[in-house]
Amino acid sequence: MIRAATHADIPRLVELGTLLHDTSTYAATSFKPDKVARFLGQLIDGLGVVFAAEVDGVVVGGFAGAITEQWFSDDLLAYDYSLFIEPGKRQGAIAIKLILAFQNWAKAKGAKHIHMGITTGINTEGTARLYKYLGFQYVGPLFTMEVDHGR
Predict the structure, then answer these.
(1) pTM score, whole prediction
(2) Which of 6, 131, 145, 150 gets the highest tally of CB atoms within 10 A of its CB?
(3) Which residues lie closer than 8 Å to 5 by C-beta, 6 or more apart?
(4) Per-residue confidence of the chain (151 residues) as pLDDT tens digits?
């Protein structure tokens, strides 16, 4: 079942976010659970949206996103912060249901476009196929570089 997340879900969502962080390209970057919890609370309170995926009453995944005006026009752009699913549940339909929930939310909010990224380094090709299956178009890669501060 996919539903809007509540504040009661935040500890479990942070736990799942920690799992994602620790197994992704972000693993070398610090992770602050309290900051994540505050941010998810702000999204739930209206800064954006958080969906929770439940299986047998247990939250096994989530989706965090938001909407903003394009910097160059008044058109609304919906975007993801994170799609995270417990590793043992990643091969089912949970991701599809979470993304569809976000698409429906974005449409209801008046978004003209939805942008979804893949920055975790986890199953990049499979995730790209999933996004294409759901109607997203590939528009180009994302590059990253760690900044050396000479320490």
Answers:
(1) 0.93
(2) 131
(3) 13, 40, 44, 50, 51, 52, 62
(4) 999 999 999 999 999 999 999 999 999 999 999 999 999 999 999 999 999 999 999 999 999 999 999 999 999 999 999 999 998 888 779 999 999 999 999 999 999 999 999 999 888 999 999 999 999 999 998 888 889 998 7
Q: How far apart are CA 143 and CA 125, in angstroms?
A: 16
Q: Which two tokens stand for residue 63?
A: 């989706």
Domains and CATH numbers, the chain: 2-133 (3.40.630.30)
Instruction: Specify whether the CB–CB gap between 48 and 66 falls below 8 A.
Output: yes
Spatial separation of the C-alpha atoms in residues 107 and 109, rounded to whole Å: 5
Strands 76-85 and 58-69: antiparallel
DSSP β-ladder status, 113-115 and 49-55: unpaired
Q: What is the CA radius of gyration of the chain?
A: 16
